[in-house]
Design goal:
With 138 residues, this protein is of the alpha/beta class. The protein has one domain (7-135): 2,3-Dihydroxybiphenyl 1,2-Dioxygenase, domain 1. It is built from three helices and eight strands, in the order βαβββαβαβββ. The strands form two sheets. The protein has a four-stranded mixed sheet, with helices on one face. The protein starts with 6 loop residues before the first strand and ends with a strand. The relative contact order is 0.19.
Length: 138
């Protein structure tokens, strides 16, 4: 019995800004854009990983959530306290320069980590932390 990652979710407060970042800056492809009950879900993914998608979803994708819960999640998103994702790349430094040039908030410039990767991190337009790592040689 095999298990593979199919989808992961990232909360965004502005899907159009998120699409511009994930598609135009990171180079991911938009795979679907679906609206339902006043909410919107957009899936994006790397062209060479057709079976894995990141779903850009509303901060609280539950039509039955209370107003207080919606406000709490929006506050956490605005503070950048919701979890993001980690991407792998074959050129951390080049990716860093491309993303920085887009105006994204830099959290960490490329650096070698003791656990065997060179990585950097940014915030997406909604405030989610995204890390990009490259295995170190040797």
């Amino acid at each position: 019995m095999g298990i593979n990652l199919s989808q992961c979710f990232i909360a965004v407060d502005d899907h159009d800004k998120a699409i511009a970042f994930y598609r135009d800056v990171l180079g991911l492809e938009v795979r679907s854009d679906v609206g339902f009950e006043g909410m919107r879900w957009v899936s994006v993914g790397a062209p060479d990983q057709p079976d894995v998608a990141i779903v850009l979803e509303p901060p609280l994708a539950d039509p039955n959530a209370s107003d207080a819960d919606r406000e709490a999640v929006n506050v956490l998103l605005a503070k950048g306290l919701l979890r993001g994702v980690i991407f792998s790349t074959d050129d951390c430094d080049a990716l860093f320069e491309r993303v920085r040039a887009s105006g994204a908030e830099v959290l960490q410039e490329p650096m070698d980590q003791p656990y065997g990767v060179r990585d950097c991190s940014f915030r997406d337009p909604a405030g989610n932390m995204l890390r990009f790592n490259q295995p170190r040689k040797g």
